[in-house]
Amino acid sequence: MPPRKIIIDTDPGQDDAVAILLALASPEEIEVLGITCVAGNVPLALTSKNARVVCELAGKPDVPVFAGCDRPLGRDLVTAEHVHGKTGLDGPNLPDPVMALAEGHAVDFIIEQLRAHPPGTVTLCPLGPLTNIATALQKAPDIADRIEEIVLMGGAYFEVGNVTPTAEFNIYVDPEAADIVFKSGTPIVVMPLDVTHKALVTRPRNDAFRALATPVGRAVAQMTDFFERFDKEKYGSDGAPLHDPCVTAYLIRPDLFTGRHVNVGIETQGALTLGMTVADWWGVTDRTPNALFVGDLDADGFFDLLTERLGRL
Question: Which residues are tagged catalytic?
């Protein structure tokens, strides 16, 4: 089977970086057509810089990286330096990128790639707020039927919220964009907090990254050392959840994940619930299912895959 063609839409972010590294280390399963950046964890200037830093760390400076939307569709930008540090990639001391940003806007690249490839052959992998994806769908409605699948990290249901009591960060930053994406009719797979909070970087798992004794292995260990301080204090867990790599791991080993095909709606008005992903997990409404909402994973299998692939870089 030929590798799956994907576009990674991202706001790096340490866990975004690991997701990108996993994709770039897996050319048999994944062909990365390009990386599109969006404002989210940190502002756009930093996310578009960080994506290039990660490509160079992986030894893949030929992957085109595009800058996209610098703010949500209709709101002020909310960022998360309190989690990811002032650069978004705090932890390792990585050099500034040599590679330049690709010319053009990320949204235009997404549209061009979907139109250039046969329908149903390009998957979009958003790891941050959905602003770029929604803007592309608004600008070029014809692409909705050309997307093979959207596999995204965002939302929560049983795990409720991580930025408000009811909302996960990526959806909360731009709920209107998320609403557009979930109503697009495109096949969607959701990696919510319900599953990502089970992908915990415990000390032995982080030691395995460090034991790779490579620049990538050391950098990943230093990244997770940095951002686990926040999650351990917040959740009282044994380690930090690796949210975004669940997206790329799913593309490689979908058998590691289980979920339900349900209706997911986005709350865009609620005073207490803005940005909530309302998943009809128990099928109590007549709303048509629009997403595979993932709820569990084989954590040991996930980290075995991640460690083995990172060791290739």
Answer: 243
Band (pLDDT 50/70/90 cuts) for residue 61 is very high
* pLDDT tens by residue, 63-100: 999 999 999 999 999 998 778 878 778 888 899 999 99
Per-residue CA distances from 109 to 16, 41, 249, 272 (Å) = 20, 22, 24, 36
What is the Cα 55 distance to its own chain's centre?
16
* Structure-token pair, residue 178: 């998320």
- Calculated CA dihedral for residues 148, 296, 242, 58, nearest 10 degrees: -40
The CATH label, of 3.90.550.10, 3.90.245.10, 2.40.30.10, 3.30.1300.10, for the domain at 4-310 is 3.90.245.10
Query: Torsion angle of alpha carbons 62, 58, 92, 227, nearest 10°?
Result: 100
Q: Take residue 170 and report the two structure tokens written for it.
A: 């990526």
Asked if residue 13 has a cis previous peptide bond (ω within 30° of 0), the answer is: yes
Measure Cα distances from 213 to 137, 208, 209, 210 in Å: 43, 9, 8, 6
